[in-house]
């Protein structure tokens, strides 16, 4: 499902009111987009907590799926949003490290990215997506159909909850 190709692969196009044409891409850890994703994840998810992504063990990320949004019209486009998908079983994955450039948050990029990643995962017959969401992000995930499956717990020093979404097949989506 996730191969380490040398180049990013475009999954789909979309349109954003302020940014114009955007692309959802998947990219390998050997790509410059992966380095951009580490910087974005550090800025959005680690630095506000006094942590650094650069001190974490990232070796397993070579076996994980990396997805992002870039503007279509820019050569060497900057990464605007990213998410990581961790394979767990043939039918289950974990979504982690969702981040959007701070100035672009609450403009639909995260929602667009997750919906496109879900479509991608359906092609591989993934049936369930799990994640540990910060309590501050619960409403975002619930609007996308994720349901709480746990009480609150602490992770990286802040409250989280486990969420889950059962993916419907493409044929079920239209019926």
Overall shape: it is globular
Q: How many H/I helices?
A: 4
Q: Tell me about the biggest sheet?
A: 9 strands, mixed
Fraction of residues in β-strands? 25-35%
Number of separate strands: 9
Q: How would you classify the helix and strand content by structural class?
A: alpha+beta
Q: Any low-confidence stretches, pLDDT <50, length ≥5?
A: none
* N to C succession of SSEs: EEHEEEHEHEEEH
> What is the residue-mean pLDDT, rounded to a whole number?
90
Helix content class = 10-25%
Radius of gyration: 16 Å
Commentary on this structure:
With 175 residues, the protein is of the alpha+beta class. The chain contains four helices and nine strands; from the N terminus they run E-E-H-E-E-E-H-E-H-E-E-E-H. It has helices at residues 32-46, 109-123, 138-143, 170-173, and strands spanning 9-16, 20-26, 65-71, 81-87, 92-100, 128-134, 147-148, 153-155, 158-166. Strands 1, 2, 3, 4, 5, 6, 7, 8 and 9 form a nine-stranded mixed β-sheet that branches. The longest helix has 15 residues, at 32-46. Residues 24-168 form the N-acetyltransferase domain.
Concise structural overview:
The protein has 175 residues and is an alpha+beta fold. It has helices at 32-46, 109-123, 138-143, 170-173; strands at 9-16, 20-26, 65-71, 81-87, 92-100, 128-134, 147-148, 153-155, 158-166.
Features:
9-stranded mixed sheet, GNAT family N-acetyltransferase, Acyl_CoA_acyltransferase, GNAT_dom, 175 residues, single chain, alpha+beta
